[in-house]
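Lab notebook, design round three. We kept the backbone fixed and only want residue identities now. Task for the bench partner: fill in a sequence for the structure below.
Input structure tokens:
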């Protein structure tokens, strides 16, 4: 796992490699100012850090079984029915957690 400084260095290099960058102001294409470039580097560095530290959360949310699947499986198990759905739900849930580990 990269440090914040390493990710910031990557971001800085990516912005440098992408030059020239432009913005649109009043329907006019204008090259970034030095302040714009500095802010773009900070923003990209922060994005890379957040993706590394918290990207697993979104990945898990997108892959977890739905609440409907949870309720159906849990209800069936609790009313004494076949627990096959519940077992499958637990396996799917644990797979998502293992595939998208929390950074240490």
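Proposed sequence:
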């Amino acid at each position: 796992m990269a440090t914040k400084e390493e990710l910031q260095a990557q971001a800085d290099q990516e912005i440098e490699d992408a030059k020239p960058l432009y913005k649109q102001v009043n329907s006019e294409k204008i090259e970034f100012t030095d302040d714009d470039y500095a802010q773009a580097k900070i923003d990209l560095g922060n994005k890379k850090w957040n993706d590394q530290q918290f990207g697993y959360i979104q990945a898990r949310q997108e892959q977890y079984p739905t609440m409907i699947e949870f309720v159906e499986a849990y209800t069936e198990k609790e009313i004494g029915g076949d627990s096959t759905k519940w077992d499958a739900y637990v396996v799917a849930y644990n797979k998502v957690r293992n595939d998208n580990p929390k950074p240490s």
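Keep this in mind before ordering anything: The beta strands are 22-25, 28-31.
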